[in-house]
Design brief:
It is built from eight helices and seven strands, in the order αααββββαααβββαα. By secondary structure, it is an alpha+beta fold. It has a four-stranded antiparallel β-sheet, with no helix packed on it. Strand 2 and strand 3 form a beta hairpin. The longest helix is centred in the middle third of the chain and has 67 residues. The chain is rod-shaped. Pfam families: OEP (PF02321). Keywords: Cell outer membrane, Coiled coil, Membrane, Transmembrane, Transmembrane beta strand, Transmembrane helix, Transport. Its main location: membrane. It comes from Flagellimonas yonaguniensis.
């Protein structure tokens, strides 16, 4: 009867253990949909990953610096709308030259040079093209920041999920410990079994404390990305699972990457620079007027005596002997060739990163499915141990081995989930 009591206790405890494991596994493996915008569903009143990303974009100093650079570039459009300074000259004749109508006393001149038609518009177009290139930098910086926030977030999730698994396993070992103590009382187990179970608990507690230190460090890094107090609490989703199917993307989607768009904008800016250079190579037209006050002659008397001189003028500035503009044209041509080669090289890098991310995401899915099967088999082995108790042949060394295997498979599953979403975030950065 007493033996039967122990069997029933063990079966009850084991049933509870298995139920708890299934509840825990379900808690960590609920369906989690990865959206293109990296939105992560979080229960209750907790923030979503997208909210964190938006907060980071609003507060990150690097983003703010890029936005200021863009504002400066925008202001340069207004700067481009200019013409050469108006020239004003004045002189006084120390020795007044005599003319038919009298002696000239001074000379006052005003002159204004004007660029060729369309030059100012060409300057503005060039400034706009440069501003567009600066704006792409903001987009790139925001996407990189979103990627960093997402990756840090998934690392935080993995740490918390591992801690939850450790808590579950510590509770399981405590249950085994109580059972071992009971078995010692009836002579079915040794005190050494109890000590081994306690040692294992200590090891798991150590792992949990180490993970807490890792979480604190990662939380600091996460908060720094958001430019806020390092010790602010970060709430992470407790439930994540690899979806059954993942969207497929080909290399054509990489054409949307702003890193490539940056080179397109730079190419366009060089094209606008060349148009401006061609306009500046055209003549400049000047308009002016000279005013010469004349002293009236006393020895003659006629209608124009002492009449001041007003002389309108037109001038043309022609760059006949200036090779500057030819050199600039050649530089622009070479610069466009350079941008094309840089874009091609960057495309190769992005394609390699894309292929690697897809491969590693698929590897994570394979690893996850394998660990899921392993975990089921380990749980079946545990059930066999429970049945062996009925014959009085239970071995707590086997119990520890099975527990360790199950913990290993659970940890590997969490790593697979983290790896899947980290790689998904990279793919999202590359193609969206």
């Amino acid at each position: 009867m007493k033996k039967l009591k122990y069997i029933l206790v063990f079966l009850f405890v084991s049933a509870e253990v298995h139920a708890e494991r299934r509840r825990s596994a379900k808690a960590h493996l609920n369906v989690f949909v990865f959206l293109a915008l990296l939105l992560v569903g979080i229960g209750g009143q907790a923030q979503q990953l997208q909210t964190y990303i938006q907060e980071a974009e609003a507060n990150n100093p690097e983003i703010q610096a890029f936005e200021l650079r863009y504002s400066i570039a925008e202001e340069k459009v207004n700067e481009a709308n200019w013409i050469p300074n108006t020239e004003v000259s004045a002189g006084y004749f120390v020795s007044e030259p005599e003319t038919r109508v009298g002696a000239q006393r001074a000379r006052i001149g005003v002159k204004q040079m004007l660029p060729w038609f369309g030059t100012i518009t060409a300057r503005e177009n060039y400034a706009i093209a440069m501003a567009d290139a600066e704006y792409v930098d903001i987009t790139i910086a925001k996407r990189k920041l979103a990627l960093s926030v997402a990756q840090s977030y998934y690392r935080l999730y993995a740490i918390r999920a591992k801690q939850a698994v450790l808590d579950e396993n510590i509770q399981l070992l405590e249950t085994y410990e109580r059972l071992a103590l009971t078995s010692v009382e009836v002579g079915k187990a040794s005190a050494v079994d109890v000590l081994r179970l306690q040692i294992r608990q200590n090891e798991l507690q150590q792992q949990k404390e180490v993970l807490e230190e890792e979480f604190t460090a990662e939380q600091t890094a996460f908060n720094n990305l958001l430019n806020r107090e390092s010790m602010m609490t970060v709430i992470v989703v407790p439930e994540m699972e690899i979806p059954q199917e993942a969207p497929f993307y080909d290399n054509q989607a990489l054409s949307l990457n702003p890193e490539l768009l940056k080179y397109d904008k730079l190419y366009e800016s060089v094209a606008q620079s060349e148009l401006l250079n061609q306009r500046e190579n055209l003549p400049m037209i000047g308009f002016g007027v000279d005013y010469l006050p004349v002293t009236e002659r006393s020895d003659v008397n006629f209608s124009d005596n002492g009449k001041d001189v007003l002389m309108p003028m037109v001038s043309v500035s022609i760059p006949i002997f200036n090779n500057r503009y030819k050199s600039i044209s050649r530089q622009n041509e070479l610069r466009q060739q350079e941008i094309e080669t840089q874009r091609e090289q960057r495309l190769n890098v992005l394609e390699s990163a894309f292929a690697k991310a897809q491969s590693q995401r698929n590897q994570a899915r394979i690893a996850y499915n394998t660990q899921e099967r392993n975990l089921k088999q380990a749980q079946d082995a545990e059930e066999i141990l429970v049945k062996n108790y009925e014959t009085g042949t239970i071995d707590f060394n086997d119990v520890l081995d099975i527990q360790e295997l199950q913990l290993k498979f659970q940890m590997n599953q969490i790593e697979s989930v983290k790896g899947y979403y980290v790689q998904s975030a990279i793919i999202n950065y590359l193609i969206n």
